Amino acid sequence: MEPKRQVPPPEPFDVDNDTPEEGENFRVPTARGVLSAAEIAALLRPDIPEDAFDAPQAVGPRQICDFEVGGEGDLLTGDAQTLAAEMTLALRKHCGVDAVLALRAASHSPMSQIVSSHSQPAVLVLFKDRVGLQNAGLTLDAGLVSALVSVACGGDPVAETGRPLSALDGRILEHMLAPLAAAIDPSFQIVCVETDRSAAFAMLAPGKAMLADLSCQLGPVAGRMIFARIQDQKQTADPQLAAPAISATVTARIARISVPISKLSGLVPGSVLRLGLPKDQPVELLSGGRDGPVIAEGEIGRKGERMAIRINRCTPALKGLPAKP
Asked: Domains in the chain and their CATH numbers?
């Protein structure tokens, strides 16, 4: 049996030349002893060349979009143009009228504007939803109405100016435009067709509406339609149709970047961090926290004295959220 080998005791660290400064209560053992305070600081904050990053620049106030000025901009115009396209399709496919509608202007205006905007005699077609709220309306020039009635009776579209519309004309127009109401909104149906301006004003519900001023070309007849729909709709009294009080957390994310600690610790007021994104990069809206799915994209602006985001695009992930019961 071989004798047990004797292992010599380890040599003590030589700390005479690299003793930590007074007040330090830790030592990092190395092959030669311990690291000095300067060496530890160099490891934690490596020496990065000065030209490794852009020099800090002064940050001025950012010019952001004011959502209070000029309505809702492109979104409002886009919605109105979509409405014109849907109404054109409905008139041609469901009403048998080869009319072409084009958007003239879109705005947020009082509901009564659909009647007062017409300088010539006009006809009001009033819509209600399934709850019975009269929250939308359509006005047409009298000449355009007579052309529609002529087409409904099998004739050519001719604007008979100066001819007062009869009760029968109103019934014909109501029957012709019934499919148009369902095309605008499946819950819509026509309440009445009114030719008297005073009565039309009395029937309109108060409130701010999305107003689409449309031109209508029906054969040789050029007319005008104005559609308006109440936006600030009050909550319906029917509890089965009322929207439930459910809320969700939505996070707005501009960008996510990695920054060296040495750069981050040197930030001062006026420093600039480049995000590496184009200046028109949209803001992402995430559902369920900062690591949730992106449900929409938009742009930053302000609404009054508060920051706001205007939605430009919705992603398919939005459809996966719980729907209304």
From this structure: 74-230 (3.40.1550.10), 248-255+279-325 (no CATH)
**The pTM is what?**
0.53
d(CA 54, CA 174): 68
Q: At which residue do the structure tokens 């008139």 appear?
A: 91
Q: Which pair of tokens denotes residue 125? A: 């077609």
pLDDT per residue over 78-91, tens digit each?
A: 888 888 999 999 99
pLDDT in tens, 7-62: 566 555 454 444 444 444 445 555 556 777 777 766 666 565 656 556 666 666 66
Burial zone of 97 (CB within 10 Å; 0-12 exposed, 13-18 middle, 19+ buried): buried
Give the type of residue at 96: G
160: burial class by Cβ within 10 Å (0-12, 13-18, 19+)?
middle
Please choose, from the candidates 103, 100, 223, 95, the residue with its C-alpha nearest in 3D space to the C-alpha of residue 158: 223
CA–CA distance, 288 with 295 (Å, rounded to integer): 10
Find out whether 219 and 98 touch, Cβ atoms under 8 Å: yes
